[in-house]
């Protein structure tokens, strides 16, 4: 069984003061879901230390929003994967569509970052997804397969094991528009089938989460498909009540039998 995971991507938001207030409120609300799912918070780099301290022993993991494609050296302004690992990060987002579009990260750049995150013993969260234009041209899976192949070319299928894929249709990010639950489910299934065709077992075991305008009001519908293993949440992760309601919706998808297995673990 794939354990659900809920990831907060704060993007370039927050302050020392607001992070503290948000987390104090959020952590108590997320506490009941700790056994049922994995959770992670990805703040901007300068707040990693603060958030790590506030997360303490809650069982909620720390994540980063990106890393350098170089491992060390003369790369002013960059942050390496080993530094993030040293700071206590367990997850690192790679290939977010905002990085691809606004900072011109190519598939090869993303693949290099992915490899470095794996080498530093963290789990990459590989963001994939199509633009509206690509979707309208029926290119969704061609785009996603190209994005996946770049990573497979860099690490082989071994790199995918233990990583997470986030399906984030670009047109759904921060727009209030979500893909329909059916469409999300179909795309996640197609991603699994593609990975299974590359190596049996990988597609079925990998966690695929959905991101793009997930809110408390649509989370239950989006998470109802067994193909959807959780969410990567942007705007709604900046509001404690909204984010914890999304957590509750995800927790509700875990059957009693599953949670008994978890308790036995
Ligand atoms: O980009 C996202 C998460 O990485 C999604 O952002 P929103 O939830 O704000 O649409």
UniProtKB/TrEMBL annotation:
Name the record gives this protein: Triosephosphate isomerase
Binding site for substrate: 9-11, 174, 213, 234-235
Protein's pathway: Carbohydrate degradation; glycolysis; D-glyceraldehyde 3-phosphate from glycerone phosphate: step 1/1; Carbohydrate metabolism; erythritol degradation; Carbohydrate biosynthesis; gluconeogenesis
Function: Involved in the gluconeogenesis. Catalyzes stereospecifically the conversion of dihydroxyacetone phosphate (DHAP) to D-glyceraldehyde-3-phosphate (G3P).
Enzyme superclass (EC): isomerase
Protein localization: Cytoplasm
CDD domains in alphabetical order: TIM (cd00311)
InterPro entries on file: Aldolase_TIM, TIM_sf, TrioseP_Isoase_bac/euk, Triosephosphate_isomerase, Triosephosphate_isomerase_AS
Key words, A-Z: Cytoplasm, Gluconeogenesis, Glycolysis, Isomerase
Organism whose genome encodes this protein: Marinobacter iranensis
Reaction equation(s) it catalyzes: D-glyceraldehyde 3-phosphate = dihydroxyacetone phosphate
PANTHER family linked to this entry: TRIOSEPHOSPHATE ISOMERASE
